[in-house]
Design goal:
The structure holds two protein chains of two kinds. By secondary structure, chain A is an alpha/beta fold. Chain A has two domains: about 170 residues, Rossmann fold, CATH 3.40.50; about 180 residues, no CATH class. Chain A contains 15 helices and ten strands. The longest helix of chain A is centred in the first third of the chain and has 24 residues. Classes of the chains: A alpha/beta, B alpha/beta. Chain A: It holds the Pfam family Exostosin_GT47.
Chain lengths: ~400, ~500
C-alpha cells in the first residue's frame, strides 16, 4: 500500500517535470516543431532505450554479395546495407545476446541487380529462408520466440512479398517465416497483404551528399507553382495539366532537377510502379510541399511525423481537379507547411547519412523499435511450441540457397 | 526489363488461360443438369477455345476488351486502355487475385457485383486516367496561384533576406549634357527597383536646372536636388576634382539634415547590379567594393586590353583585369588595394570630355566605397575615433580623391563582396563632346507656323522640291535674302513648313 502511494507520487512528479521540459522547448522559433501523434518523438535518442544484437552471418549473405555488385550502395534500396553498418558501430549494439531486446539479421536480399540496376527478387525468398535456418540452428533466440523479437530490413518494392509486380507480390504474400518478425520496409499501403501490422515504414535511400551539393540559397524566391518530373503512371497528371502554365511537368529529368525543386512551392509525388517514391524524400529535403497522390499510402515514420500537416493528400480520382485543390489551400496553411518542412529534424529524419547523425533515419528506426518495447509476454513460446510453418510457400522457395 | 516481364506475364496468362478456364467450366457444368448441360458445355468450350486461340495470336487477352466494350458504363471521361485486366464474364472468381484495381483486398472467391464494377475500369495505376472536359487553366485559379507565390516569396524575404534594412543615401553628381538623360534614367530605374528606402541626393554642377528636375520628376523616389555653383569644366582632370567637391557638398547636406543610413556614391554613368545593394547593407562603418573599370576606347583598331602586353614581364604578372578594390589575404583580411594601372594607357588617355580616347579613372574611385552616414555627423560621439571630421577633410585645398581621406587608419575599411572577389558595379565614362547639341528635354517641338510675307518666298509657283535642288536653282534667281535665310535653317522640315505656309499666305493675299 505504501509502495504504491510512493510510486504514484513519483509518477506525478515525473509527469510534472516532463511537462516543464516540453514547455521550455516551445520558445519562439521560425521553424515549427514537429509534434507527431506520439509527441515530439523525432528528437528522441534511442541510446539507452533498447539493445540490439547483430547476428554474425557468413559473408556470403552480406559482404560477398556487395563485393559482387557495389552498385547496391547507391540505389534506392541501399538502406539495408547502411543499416547494417550503422548497427555494427552504434552504442545500441550489444555483444551479449541475453540482454538484447531486438535481434538483427544482416542479409542483403535486394542486392541481385540486373545490368540496368534493377533488383531481381527471385532469389530473395530463398536467401532469407536460408539465413533464418542458419540463425535458428546456431542460436536459440529464434526458436524462443519464432522471430517475434527479430527485425529484418526488406526495402524492396513490396517488402517481404519479394516481388516487384503487385499481383505476384499479393499472390505470394509475406514470406511465411517472417510472419512474427518486425519488418522495416519502404513499402506502405493500408489494407495490403504486403504490409504487416507493426511494420516500420522507412523512406527509400537517397544519397545525402548528392542532394547537399545541389542546395541553393534559401532566399531565392520560389517561382514555380507545381513541379514534377517523371514517367509512367503519372500520365493522368500529364494529360490534364500539360498546357497549364502553373504546372511545370515533364518526363525528362533535367540536370537542374534538384535546384528546380527548391524553386517550387508544390512537388507532386504520385504513385509509381510501387506506391512509394524517392520524390517524397527529395521534396522534404528541398522544402517543397509534397502533394501525395496515392490512395491509402502509409508514409515513412507515420507515427512520428504528422504528414497531414506537412503534405497535401489528393485522392487519385481527384487528379483532374488538382489545380483547384491546390489553389484553394489558404496561404496561412501553406506557410505553416513550409515552416514545418524547414525544420531541420524533419529533413534529417528522411536521410541515411554516413556517418550517422542524431535524428536521422537510422535513429528513427531505432526509436520505432524502442516504442514497441517491452515485448509482450505472449511472444515467448513455451518449450516445443511451434507456430511457423516451415514448408509453407511456393515450392521454388524451399530450395536451398 | 519490366516491359518484357509484363509481356511474359501476359503470355503466361494466355497459356494458363485454357487450364484455368476448365475449372469453372467444370463447376458450371456440374451445376446445370441433363442434356442442356452438354449443349451449353460444348458451346462454352468452343467459344473458350476460340478466344484462347485469338488471344495467343494477338498476344493479349482480347476477351476482356470485348467485355469492356460491351459492358462499360457511359462515362464522359476518356479512358486510356493500356493493360487489359478486366475479367471475362465466365471467370470472375479467379481474376480477383489478378486485378490491380482492388480497393479493399478481401480473401478471394467473393463474387460481388461491387468488385466487378470496379474491375471494369481499365487501369494504369489503380484508376483510369481521367481527363476533365475542359483541361485549360481557370484564370481565377491562376490568379490565386500567383497570390500564393507572392505570399510565399514575401515570407522568404522576411525569413532569409536582410533583416532591418537601412536607408540608402545615394550621392550622384550630374550636370546637363547630351548623355545626361541616358545615364540618369538608367540609375533612376536601378534605384526604383530596390526594395529599400532610398534618399537620392543629386548634386548638379552649374546650379539646379529645370532640365534635370524634369528628368527626376519621373521617379517616385525621395530626391534632394541640390545645385552647385560652378559649371562643369571640359577637362577630365578638372571634372574629377569638381565631382569630388560636389560629393563633399552632398555629405554636408547629410550632416546638416542628420540623415541616417548607408551612403553610397553612384555616379550617373556607372552600372550597378541589384546584388550590390543587398551586399552593402552589411557595412558597419566604411566598406570597400570591387569596381570593374570599363575603360573603353572609341578607336576600334586599338584594343585597350591589349596594352598590358607591351609592358615588361614584371607588370605582366599583375592581373590584367581592370578592377579597383580591396585586396585580401587568405583569411579574408584587408591587406591592400588593387588600383587601376593607368601607366599603360597614359599616352592614349582622354584629356577633355568627348575626346576620342580612353577615359581613365583615378586610382581608387569614390564609387567603390560605402559609408555609414553617422561618420559625417557633427557630433563626434557617433563615430569611431579613427574617422576625421568632415569639416577638417573638406576644407583642405587638395583634392579628395576617395573616402580613404576620411580615415586616420585605412586598415579599418571592411571589404565587401566576398572580400572583393565579386564585382557588382562597373565604372564607365561615356560622354559626347561638350558642345554637342540635343533637343531640350528630349522633346522635338513642332514649329508653329512661321508666317512669312509672300514677297520673301522664293518661288511662288514651284512645287515642293528637295532642298539640294532648291539650292542649285537658287543661283539663278535673285532672292538673296531668302537664300541666307535658308542656309541658316538646318532642318528640312522647317523649310517645307515655310514653303507651305508661304503658299497659304500667298493664296490668302491673292484672294
Amino acid at each position: 500500500m505504501r509502495n504504491s502511494s510512493w510510486g504514484f507520487l513519483l509518477m506525478f512528479l515525473s509527469a510534472f517535470l516532463l511537462d516543464l521540459d516540453a514547455f521550455e522547448l516551445r520558445k519562439g522559433q521560425k521553424t515549427e516543431r514537429i509534434s507527431g501523434s506520439a509527441g515530439d518523438v523525432l528528437e528522441d535518442d534511442p541510446v539507452g532505450r533498447l539493445k540490439v544484437f547483430v547476428y554474425e552471418l557468413p559473408s556470403k549473405y552480406n559482404k560477398k554479395i556487395l563485393q559482387k555488385d557495389p552498385r547496391c550502395l547507391n540505389h534506392m534500396f541501399a538502406a539495408e546495407i547502411y543499416m547494417h553498418r550503422f548497427l555494427l558501430s552504434s552504442p545500441v549494439r550489444t555483444l551479449n545476446p541475453e540482454e538484447a531486446d531486438w535481434f538483427y539479421t544482416p542479409v542483403y536480399t535486394t542486392c541481385d541487380l540486373t545490368p540496368n540496376g534493377l533488383p531481381l527478387p527471385f532469389k530473395s525468398p530463398r536467401m532469407m529462408r536460408s539465413a533464418i535456418q542458419l540463425i535458428s540452428s546456431n542460436w536459440p533466440y529464434w526458436n524462443r520466440t519464432e522471430g517475434a523479437d527479430h527485425f529484418f530490413i526488406v526495402p524492396h518494392d513490396f517488402g517481404a512479398c519479394f516481388h516487384y509486380q503487385e499481383e505476384k507480390a499479393i499472390e505470394r504474400g509475406i514470406l511465411p517465416l517472417l510472419q512474427r518478425a518486425t519488418l522495416v520496409q519502404t513499402f506502405g499501403q493500408r489494407n495490403h497483404v504486403c504490409l504487416k501490422d507493426g511494420s516500420i515504414t522507412v523512406p527509400p535511400y537517397a544519397p545525402p551528399q548528392k542532394m547537399q551539393s545541389h542546395l541553393i540559397p534559401p532566399s531565392i524566391p520560389r517561382s514555380i507553382f507545381v513541379y514534377f518530373r517523371g514517367l509512367g503512371a503519372r500520365a493522368a497528371v500529364w494529360e490534364n495539366f500539360k498546357d497549364n502554365p502553373l504546372f511545370d511537368i515533364s518526363t525528362e529529368h533535367p540536370t537542374t532537377y534538384y535546384e528546380d525543386m527548391q524553386r517550387a512551392v508544390f512537388c507532386l509525388c504520385p504513385l509509381g510502379w510501387a506506391p512509394w517514391s524517392p520524390r517524397l524524400v527529395e521534396a522534404v529535403i528541398f522544402g517543397c510541399i509534397p502533394v501525395i497522390i496515392a490512395d491509402d499510402i502509409v508514409l515513412p515514420f507515420a507515427d512520428a511525423i504528422p504528414w497531414e500537416d506537412i503534405g497535401v493528400y489528393v485522392d487519385e480520382k481527384d487528379v483532374p481537379n488538382l489545380d483547384t485543390i491546390l489553389t484553394s489551400i489558404p496561404t496561412e496553411v501553406i506557410l505553416r507547411k513550409q515552416r514545418l518542412l524547414a525544420n531541420p529534424s524533419m529533413k534529417q529524419a528522411m536521410l541515411f547519412p554516413h556517418p550517422a547523425q542524431p535524428g536521422d533515419a537510422f535513429h528513427q528506426i531505432l526509436n520505432g523499435l524502442a516504442r514497441k518495447l517491452p515485448h509482450d509476454k505472449s511472444v515467448y513460446l513455451r518449450k516445443g511450441e511451434k507456430v511457423l510453418n516451415w514448408t509453407a510457400g511456393p515450392l521454388a522457395d524451399l530450395k536451398p540457397w | 526489363m519490366k516491359f518484357q516481364v509484363l509481356q511474359q506475364s501476359h503470355a503466361n496468362r494466355g497459356r494458363s488461360n485454357s487450364c484455368r478456364g476448365a475449372s469453372p467450366l467444370d463447376s458450371s457444368a456440374d451445376g446445370s443438369g441433363g442434356t442442356t448441360k452438354s449443349a451449353a458445355a460444348i458451346f462454352w468450350i468452343m467459344l473458350h477455345c476460340l478466344c484462347c486461340l485469338i488471344s495467343l495470336v494477338l498476344g493479349f487477352r482480347f476477351s476482356r476488351l470485348v467485355f469492356f466494350l460491351l459492358f462499360s458504363s457511359s462515362s464522359t471521361n476518356n479512358l486510356y486502355t493500356s493493360t487489359l485486366t478486366a475479367p471475362f464474364a465466365a471467370d470472375i472468381a479467379e481474376t480477383l487475385s489478378f486485378t490491380t484495381s482492388l480497393r479493399n483486398f478481401s480473401p478471394p472467391l467473393k463474387t460481388d457485383a461491387v468488385t466487378s464494377s470496379s474491375n471494369s475500369r481499365v487501369v494504369v495505376g489503380r484508376h483510369g486516367i481521367r481527363i476533365r472536359s475542359w483541361p485549360h487553366p481557370n484564370p481565377e485559379e491562376v490568379m490565386k496561384a500567383h497570390r500564393i507565390m507572392q505570399t510565399v516569396q514575401r515570407e522568404q524575404r522576411v525569413q532569409y533576406g536582410i533583416k532591418n534594412p537601412r536607408t540608402l543615401i545615394v550621392v550622384t553628381p550630374t550636370y546637363v549634357r547630351t548623355f545626361q538623360a541616358l545615364h540618369l534614367t538608367g540609375l533612376m530605374h536601378t534605384l526604383t527597383n530596390l526594395p529599400y528606402e532610398v534618399v537620392w541626393i543629386v548634386v548638379e554642377a552649374g546650379g539646379a536646372t529645370n532640365e534635370t528636375a524634369a528628368l527626376l520628376a519621373n521617379s517616385k523616389l525621395q530626391i534632394k536636388h541640390i545645385g552647385y555653383g560652378k559649371k562643369m569644366p571640359i577637362f577630365w582632370d578638372a571634372r574629377h576634382k569638381l565631382e569630388s567637391q560636389m560629393r563633399l557638398q552632398a555629405l554636408r547636406v547629410v550632416r546638416e539634415e542628420k540623415l541616417d543610413g548607408i551612403v553610397m556614391f553612384a555616379d550617373d554613368s556607372n552600372m550597378h547590379s541589384l546584388e550590390l545593394f543587398d551586399e552593402i547593407q552589411k557595412v558597419q562603418w566604411i566598406g570597400a567594393l570591387s569596381v570593374g573599370i570599363l575603360a573603353y576606347s572609341s578607336h576600334s583598331d586599338e584594343d585597350p586590353f591589349e596594352a598590358p602586353k607591351n609592358l615588361n614581364e614584371l607588370d605582366e604578372k599583375k592581373s590584367p583585369l581592370p578592377i579597383q578594390g580591396p585586396a585580401c589575404n587568405s583569411s579574408d583580411q584587408l591587406i591592400g588595394w588593387h588600383t587601376f594601372n593607368s601607366i599603360a594607357y597614359r599616352q592614349k588617355s582622354a584629356n577633355y570630355i568627348g575626346d576620342m580616347a580612353i577615359v581613365l579613372p583615378r586610382k581608387l574611385e569614390w564609387c567603390g566605397f560605402v559609408m555609414n552616414s553617422r561618420l559625417v555627423w557633427e557630433e563626434s560621439e557617433f563615430r569611431p575615433e579613427w574617422i576625421k571630421d568632415l569639416d577638417m577633410v573638406a576644407t583642405g585645398n587638395g583634392e579628395i580623391e576617395n573616402p580613404l581621406s576620411f580615415l586616420k587608419d585605412s586598415s579599418m575599411v571592411e571589404p565587401l563582396g566576398s572580400c572583393g572577389k565579386k564585382v557588382m558595379l562597373w565604372w564607365l565614362r561615356a560622354e559626347a563632346r561638350a558642345d554637342s547639341k540635343f533637343p531640350a528635354g528630349w522633346r522635338i517641338e513642332p514649329q508653329l507656323e512661321v508666317t512669312v510675307a509672300a514677297k520673301r518666298t522664293p518661288w511662288p509657283d514651284a512645287p515642293p522640291e528637295l532642298p539640294s535642288k532648291v539650292i542649285l536653282e537658287n543661283g539663278q534667281k535673285n532672292a538673296t535674302k531668302t537664300q541666307t535665310q535658308r542656309s541658316r535653317r538646318s532642318s528640312r522640315g522647317k523649310r517645307k513648313h515655310e514653303r507651305l505656309s508661304a503658299r497659304i499666305s500667298r493664296e490668302r493675299t491673292e484672294k
